[in-house]
Specification:
Blueprint (H helix, E strand, L loop, with lengths): L15 H6 L19 E3 L12 E2 L4 H13 L4 E7 L2 E7 L6 E9 L4 E8 L8 H14 L3
Antiparallel strand pairs: 1-6, 2-6, 3-4, 4-5, 5-6
Length: about 150
């Protein structure tokens, strides 16, 4: 059974125990929880094609890539970085009109030279594609080095 700390909306501290608790479907240790069985979540670790997005890839030092990713996130007025540690970033995005909160998490995969990503709505069933569009827009800005 999946720990409640691994579900979207929880902010699990970056620890080895947390990584083991949130092991993904592939068995690889990750702090990214699996997407729920609803169309309001996308993840680079998702097993279902409809929820899958590509990770954010980079060349060069991971700390420089994380600093670049943080700059991209901090430029977004709807984003609030709630946790940033080496190899881990948790962000809340709040919609302008209704104030809905979506949780976006990035986890460093140093072996792959990538940040695994998950974006999930806290409430509701369907997000009208908001999470996918957000991830792709963030990726475009990250790739452009902004």
């Amino acid at each position: 059974m999946l720990s409640s700390a691994c579900r979207p909306g929880s902010l699990l501290p970056a620890t080895l125990l947390a990584a083991m608790l949130c092991a993904g479907a592939t068995g690889a240790a990750t702090m990214l929880p699996p997407c729920p069985d609803r169309p309001n979540c996308v993840s680079s670790l998702a097993t279902r094609a409809a929820q899958r997005v590509a990770p954010f890839t980079f060349a060069g030092p991971a700390d420089a890539a994380q600093a670049r990713l943080l700059r991209v996130l901090e430029q977004d007025r709807s984003a609030t970085v709630v946790d940033a540690q080496p190899g881990w970033i948790a962000v809340e995005f709040r919609s302008r009109v209704f104030g809905f909160v979506d949780d976006v998490r990035f986890e460093l995969d140093a072996t792959a030279g990538a940040f695994q990503v998950q974006s999930a709505s806290r409430t509701g069933y369907w997000d009208l594609g908001v999470n996918r569009r957000r991830v792709e827009a963030l990726r475009a800005r990250f790739d452009a080095g902004q």
